[in-house]
From TrEMBL:
InterPro entries: ADH-like_C, ADH-like_N, ADH_Zn_CS, ER, GroES-like_sf, NAD(P)-bd_dom_sf, Zn_alcohol_dh. GO terms for biological process: protein tetramerization; small molecule metabolic process. It comes from the Archaea. This is L-threonine 3-dehydrogenase. Its EC number is 1.1.1.103. PANTHER family: L-THREONINE 3-DEHYDROGENASE. GO terms for molecular function: adenyl nucleotide binding; anion binding; L-threonine 3-dehydrogenase activity; zinc ion binding. Belongs to the zinc-containing alcohol dehydrogenase family. The gene is tdh. Its cofactor is Zn(2+). NCBIfam families: PRK05396.1 (NF003808). It is an enzyme of class 1 (oxidoreductase). Residues 11-345 form the Enoyl reductase (ER) domain. Keywords: Metal-binding, Oxidoreductase, Zinc.
Amino acid sequence: MGMTAVWKTKGEQGLEVKEAEVPKPKDDEVLIKVKATSICGTDLHIYRWDEWAANRIGKNIPYIFGHEVSGEIVEMGKSVKGLNAGDHVSAETHISCGYCFQCKTGNEHICENVKILGVDTNGTFAEYLTLPYRNAWVNDKKIPHGLASMQEPIGNAVHTVFDGEVAGKVVTVTGMGPIGVCAVGLCKAAGAEKLIAVGRHANRLAFAKEFGADVLINGKEEGVDVKKEIMDATDGKGSDVFLEMAGSPSSFNTGIETLRPGGRASILGVFSKPFEVDVTGIVFKAAKVNGINGRKMFDSWYKTKSFLGSGRIPFERLITHKFRLSEIEKGFDVLMKREGMKVVLEP
């Protein structure tokens, strides 16, 4: 049986919508009928085919990409446990081996043999996908599929925000894409004293304000000195916490420069290529700089579920556009022009 799928077939900007065979689940897999799949910043890297994508994914093409999903289990392998046909599920995208040192010490998200759904394996931009049953997260059927498909990126924000304390802290968040805005909302809900949102697009900064930002800084506006604005907003002391969501060298360096001594920087952004960093400045500040990779399995998912259920953060507001899967290029066009926030695709 055939299905519509979105393929990365060439090492250049673009994609191809074409038929694929519906996959058969292995003994430890489930077959999921996709109800909603959303476009992520990583997908933009792949679509544009920048240096990161070429180095990370080049050997995998042709393949089906995409990784944010909500759907329904329609078939199960004989070894599957704890799941049922008809369950609504989303996907933890880090497919871990289960036997390496990292997996055995509670760090499956940085498994030594990890495969990433939609990066190393066929992904979610299709009518069906197979997934190891351990990576299927069961959703409350009351949650709309479009919102449920966003749990993976919301989980990234959860992991980044709660990498340390935020209650009573002054927090700077750079990069007002969906994950950055989610981080603002999470910090506000967790009791941050002041939230500084730094971005380059007024419409996205407006979302940050709606989600609880106290100070908005548009680095694209003429005459704006982001470093000065942050220092002025913190009475010259700098931020207690810096969350980097932009994947921008200038954002990273400004965030470190405006971090108070002893502060915490948690870095989620993916950078297209290496860049220069003043490590001596980090040393003399005794700053704590942590890389964030995905979600803690499955601690971040339980926290995400709690925030979704609380209704305290209007995550659903981030869905600005919906298209059919076959119209996916319209979705990428919207995001590349920064005209929307979250684009949800429905087969």
